[in-house]
Amino acid sequence: MSVSGFLQLALLLLLLGVTIGPLGRYMALVYGERPDARAPGDRVFLPVERLLYRAARVDPRREQRWTTYTYSLLAFSLVSIAVVYALQRFQGVLPLNPTDRPGVSPMGAFNVAVSFVTNTNWQWYSGEAAMSHLTQMVGLAVQNFVSAAAGMAVVVAIIRGIARRGGRTLGNFWVDLVRTTLRILLPISVVVAVALVGLGVVQNLRGDTEARPLDTTTGVEVQQIPGGPVASQVAIKQLGTNGGGFFNANSAHPFENPNGWTNLIETYLLVIIPLALCITYGRLVKDKRQGYVLLGVMVTIWMAVTFLTVFAETSGNPLLTERGADQAVSATQSGGNMEGKEVRFGPATCGTWAAATTGTSNGSVNCMHDSLTPIGGGLPMLHMMLGEVSPGGAGVGLMGLLVYALLAVFIAGLMVGRTPEYLGKKIQAPEMKLVVLYILAMPVALLGFAAASVLLAPPWPPCSTRARTGCPRCSTTTRRRPTTTVRPSRA
Predict the structure, then answer these.
(1) What is the mean pLDDT of residues 73-94?
(2) pTM score, two decimals?
């Protein structure tokens, strides 16, 4: 490993060690035991919250049962999908579109809307070529905030259900959503966005800037350099474990991630909230040791994948070494497997980012994962297959780890012949049915739809009677299907 890669990993661990505890304790105060509990920053945030509650006709002192909490989450998600879909479809006639981007196709807009509302942020498009500034800010960046806030609200509701001894309510979804956005995600994102701008990340409302290259031998007379509100979106895409980049190359793009300092900050943002939520959990259940145990599990798995991936990438490809390629660290190169890597980062920071982004279900990249070595690429794949619980997404990671903890306690209780209990509550058949449904939901959906996509015939378009060349159904690319019909003779 190069010195810079080692220092960046050491600084990352130092920053996390210093800030996980304070952030976790702060979030515990924000959520509190009751919706109207006092929290730091009330003088600043409470007037804004009251205005939002009044506009939405929400009583912050009224808690919800789990069914009402779920309906509120689903209703909010459906409205969000409709808003993001409409913004994309009509962006051609809406303001803040300096490059005159046309409206997105119906299927493409629906794909993006569902992806960003569910915190998946899977991108089929190039952001700098397909989306207007209004769509990026009001549609995608806003969903980066509220989709992460929704996940954190759900895990807090689950924690309340585990911690409370009586009652049938789990808090208020709208209060949890507003508090998470205003008191946690927004302040951190503002500070980080300002820091990123100072370190060279683009932040403006201009369109493409024309530049004439000094080298005229390439035949390119004018280059179009894209601009836009990049830093503000990068901050929350990392902090909320979203991953949807402003540019197609994501955080490998120099406008999103120009140097080692921005790379350190963005990697830190990936994992800070999932890890700090373990401290929050220990505070809310009034048993700090439970939070430390979950934090230890997350960190152990994440660091194991990180070190092994970094080692695999910095060791390089032995087949290239046998053929005389120099992959050693030197003053002129970072060494290791440099295929698909940015020269300003190298393989060490690529391995660190790959382990963090796959462990948090983030999806952002600072190098191309299809260019990783077999071991270096296999470890992030294994990390995803663990269920993204180390550290996992914002809220979702802790939720998944709690489900696994309930399963482990149940099995251990059966093995020793005692009634399984967790935090003084018995774990019986109803709870285990829900745990099994949670565990089976992902593989059933994934494998079921994958099998259907393999078995179903592709919807080929109808063939033309004149040009059949290249049609997969009736000809090959080198032979035309006869247009004449041979009729059998009548005997």
Answers:
(1) 95
(2) 0.87
